[in-house]
Amino acid sequence: MAKEKKLVEAITSMEEDFAQWYTDVVKKAELIDYSSVKGCMVIKPAGYAIWENIQAELDRRFKETGVQNVYMPMFIPESLLEKEKDHVEGFAPEVAWVTQGGLAPLQEKLCVRPTSETLFCDFYAKDVQSYRDLPKLYNQWCSVVRWEKETRPFLRSREFLWQEGHTAHATAKEAEERTEQMLHLYADFCEEVLAMPVIRGRKTDKEKFAGAEATYTIEALMHDGKALQSGTSHNFGDGFAKAFGIQYTDKENKLQYVHQTSWGMTTRLIGAIIMVHGDDSGLVLPPAIAPTQLAIIPIMQKKEGVLEKAEEVRAKLAKTVRVKVDDTDKSPGWKFSEQEMRGIPLRLEMGPRDIEANQGILVRRDTGEKITVSLDEVEEKVATLLAVMQKEMLERARAHREEHTYDAHNYEEFLDIVNNKAGFIRGMWCGEQACEDKIKEETGATSRCMPFAQETIADTCVCCGKPAKKLVYWGRAY
Amino acid sequence: MAKEKKLVEAITSMEEDFAQWYTDVVKKAELIDYSSVKGCMVIKPAGYAIWENIQAELDRRFKETGVQNVYMPMFIPESLLEKEKDHVEGFAPEVAWVTQGGLAPLQEKLCVRPTSETLFCDFYAKDVQSYRDLPKLYNQWCSVVRWEKETRPFLRSREFLWQEGHTAHATAKEAEERTEQMLHLYADFCEEVLAMPVIRGRKTDKEKFAGAEATYTIEALMHDGKALQSGTSHNFGDGFAKAFGIQYTDKENKLQYVHQTSWGMTTRLIGAIIMVHGDDSGLVLPPAIAPTQLAIIPIMQKKEGVLEKAEEVRAKLAKTVRVKVDDTDKSPGWKFSEQEMRGIPLRLEMGPRDIEANQGILVRRDTGEKITVSLDEVEEKVATLLAVMQKEMLERARAHREEHTYDAHNYEEFLDIVNNKAGFIRGMWCGEQACEDKIKEETGATSRCMPFAQETIADTCVCCGKPAKKLVYWGRAY
User: Fold this and answer.
1) Is residue A79 domain-shared with residue A165, that is, in the same domain?
2) Which of A428, B111, B281, B351 is 20 to 30 A off residue B309, Cα-Cα?
3) CA-CA distance, B153 to B220, in Å (whole number)?
4) By CB neighbour count within 10 A (0-12 exposed, 13-18 middle, 19+ buried), where does A79 fall?
5) What 8-state DSSP symbol labels residue B171?
6) Does A400 map to a domain?
7) Any idea what DSSP says for residue B460?
8) Helix intervals (H) in A92-238
9) ipTM score for this prediction
10) Residue A52 pLDDT grade (very low, low, confident, very high; cuts 50, 70, 90)
């Protein structure tokens, strides 16, 4: 078996070179491939199937809160992009411009959407008239383009897939509630479905979205101790409404501006799954999101009855789990390695002797634990194991994060931690951008968020020593 | 009631001005809105929900045949687009070009995909090595851009949503089988789900896809007698494989070119649904695709118990149908008109007297028929009626098509029909493009397809009188 395992090309170990390990897993688990279009990727079936599961579950949760899906054009005329000052400043440097349509140059150039606030605002300005038209709770699933210089599969690419929700409300209070509601929806999704614990909090003004009054974020810690912003939710107040003239008549027949939010999650989540759960054998998928939850791998499959029994067990299990039989003509050892590389949560090994004893061997992808199971009880056992794995993967990720979260009470401690350890650093902050700038310049760490769960771990700013206002999570980030 | 009906703005009648009727329905049923981006539309929740149902059902059918979803970049470098000669000639005049990324001009301009054959080929050239890698059965759901001069909602817009399947096979036979399989899948979907009968056939060389060896098509007849190409499936043979160098080693270790297909359906189907089933009260949705299948409209809803009963019935029905209660503060007459405009297949009227008698009144959107139903039997009755409507809508559309299909045995008859009637014209064809060109120039009619079900209705070409080779469906088309 040891020899056959080599049949599947080895991947770089995480300890040796985490970045290379990541690239190896992404390629060897067949999630993506590079394309002839620089900075853009091909999402292959194994990668796209994960995205489909993310979409289905997020979409269901959105709709439960009253959200409806729509589709806006992918192009934004330059004049529209420029209507909100902060927004255009944030995005103009990184958009792709269409300047020619058919054989003729365009009169006005169009950017390929980097995000669609301006299009939704343009639409709402026409579509919203009365308080009866509110709230508007719209979302779209689409791709967006940001002309990044350095790209990495899933984490940063020139084109990526996402959803962007855009809502309009009668009052500031409703908009704030929706902003926070969607952040918690994202956080719950990450924890319940992706088994990925997140810190929920607010971005500092320096880190907030271009044009937003407030940006909320969920921040996850990757295996290498770097942070990954995993979803954001923005409250725009009435800033965009004023720039775009989105007004409604209230019950007293007075003209009012709407209050807006937007919120998004992207294919970057697939990168997060890899970097939170993966190991030196490849991907490890949480059962709730795994396209295949169980791979049945027959042993000596040419022996009479083996494949038939495997198919019988598959058919029985298919009622409750996503299951496949690997009946290709590869060796069992190769199949084990492939199943591990692809992160399929469970495998069931079944050979002639197992079948004679009416049993199989279940192997957990996350722990490697082997469990002999009677074929009469395989349904219950698989269901139980998948649930246990889902829970334990979250617990392990949370324990890893706690072990890699450090408190810094002054700048000396901060420097010591940032230079010698990898993880979140909790440190108090005076509220001045100068301190964020200094920390970023001197250490590469940025303020990830001001957590909703505030504590006072010191009275003074971790950077300048002046009176502290907020607890901040700091860290180097993707 | 008659007076209240006017509350919903009237739409132009179909007889008076079909094009205006179509535009009115699209707007008043709130399927789309125009955007600030010329030629692009905003698909609103009522329109997008139809697309989501189309997607879900098509995607399920694709996957049953082994198709997997992927995602390719939205940009195609100019050099890649140019690799297959016929293909680039077909598409280059109508693509949008990105020439600037961020603040700098691009070294090579990129077109926004009008279709993705070139990207799939570029990918397959790297990804396919051995016969073991075949077949590749990939599909993607995305938006594409074609820089049309004249646009109409759903039917022709500069950006539209679609799916594009791209497969690669070891043999020409397999590719041909897949091409036809997908065409029949499309046709069955149109008939079973959209209640829209289609003619299945092959395009002439003049009308086939740029770069294809053979294009198959399904053609539907709209209410105004014009044809709508509703889905196409292309067999590329090994033409693209040779242009892109897509080769595999077969079992005898010899290098072979793959054989490829592609097939697509678009948001244009929503336009087809409108023009096949709609009437002067608005949209009529086939039950199988309707986002809401039944609207419960309470009468005198402020009376005690009315809304409670409506909700009770809704909860009971929600187990088997997509149902909503319209409890807004509009009048029942207004609600009826709205439900009709939006094409919701059934409504259930329930007032205090009905409730006292434990009954409600079901009204069919397609026929206007009113059926008094006991609330004890409402589930069965609704299920039966929806099934009957689905069947009868297909039958009516088929009868309409048969009534508007005419045989022409010579050019005189052809001209008489095309000038005085609207519909399909069946006429024999010699196989020469000159006759297609002449017919198009003189009548505006084009060859829609050579149906699979061939007959001989004359011995000579309907245009030139020379010996005929094929029966062709001709017609003016969208």
Assistant:
1) yes
2) B281
3) 18
4) exposed
5) S
6) no
7) B
8) 117-127, 172-192
9) 0.95
10) very high
CATH of the domain at B135: 3.30.930.10
DSSP, res B72: -
Quick count: other Cβ atoms within 10 Å of Cβ B474? 27
Give the residue from A52, A74, A103 with the most B CB atoms within 10 Å of its CB, the best one to mutate.
Answer: A74
Task: Say which of B35, B80, B103 has its CB closest to residue A73.
Answer: B35
Region B39-49 average pLDDT: 96
Residue type, A35: S
Q: Please identify among residues 98-137 of chain B the ones whose CB lies closer than 8 Å to any CB of chain A.
A: 98-103, 109-110, 112, 119, 122-123, 126-127
SS3 A386: helix
Using an 8 Å Cβ cutoff, are A71 and B159 in contact? no
| Contact assignment for B37 to A110 by CB distance below 8 Å | yes
Q: How far is C-alpha A216 from the geometric centre of its chain's CA atoms?
A: 15
Instruction: Looking at the structure, tell me whether residues A327 and A418 fall in a common domain.
Output: no
Which 8-state DSSP code applies to residue B109? E
B36 in contact with chain A, both atoms CB, cutoff 8 A: yes
Give the tokens for residue A351: 């050979």
Same domain, B89 and B187: yes
| Structural element, H or E, at residue B461 | none
- Determine contact, residues B190/B205, Cβ cutoff 8 Å: no
Q: How far apart are CA B315 and CA B172, in angstroms?
A: 53
Q: Where residue A416 sits, what CATH number does that domain have? A: 3.30.110.30
State the pLDDT confidence band at B6, using cuts at 50, 70 and 90: low
pTM for the structure as a whole = 0.96
Phi and psi based region of residue B30 (left: phi greater than 0; alpha: psi -120 to 50; beta: remaining): left
Q: Which residue of A has its CA nearest to B90?
A: A102
Whether A26 has its CB under 8 Å from any CB of chain B: the answer is no
Domain span at A144: 18-277
CA B350 to CA B300: how far, in whole Å? Answer: 9
Helices (H) and strands (E) in chain B, counts: 15, 23
Are B104 and B131 contained in the same domain?
A: yes
Q: Which residues of A touch B76 (CB under 8 A)?
A: 37
Q: Is the alpha carbon torsion for B174, B180, B184, B190 positive or negative? A: positive
| Chain B residue at shortest CA distance from A149 | B102
Do A322 and A272 fall into the same domain? Answer: no
The H-or-E segment that residue B404 falls in is none
Q: Are A215 and A117 in contact (CB under 8 A)?
A: no
Quote the percentage of chain A above a pLDDT of 70: 98
Measured CA to CA, the distance from residue B448 to residue B471 in angstroms comes to 11
Judgement on whether residues B236 and B302 belong to the same structural domain of the protein: no
Q: Give yes or no for residue B3 having a pLDDT over 70.
A: no
In a domain, A3, yes or no: no
Q: Is B141 on the interface with A (CB under 8 A)?
A: no
Q: 3-state DSSP call for residue B412?
A: helix
Q: B90 in contact with A at a CB cutoff of 8 Å?
A: no
**Distance between terminal CA atoms of chain B?**
37
Contact of B199 with B451, CB cutoff 8 Å: yes
Decide if B332 is inside a domain: yes
Gap between the Cα atoms of A25 and A11, Å rounded = 7
Number of domains in chain B: 3
Token pair listed for A365? 């992808």
Backbone angles phi, psi at B90, to 5 degrees: -70, -35
On whether residue B392 sits in a domain, the answer given is no
**CB-CB neighbors (< 8 A) of A137 in chain B:** none
Q: Which pLDDT score, from 0 to 100, does residue B8 have?
A: 57
Residue B1 has pLDDT above 70, yes or no: no
Do B185 and B120 share a structural domain? yes
Tokens of A119: 């299009």
A183 and A307 co-located in one domain: no
Is 90 exceeded by the pLDDT of residue A238? yes
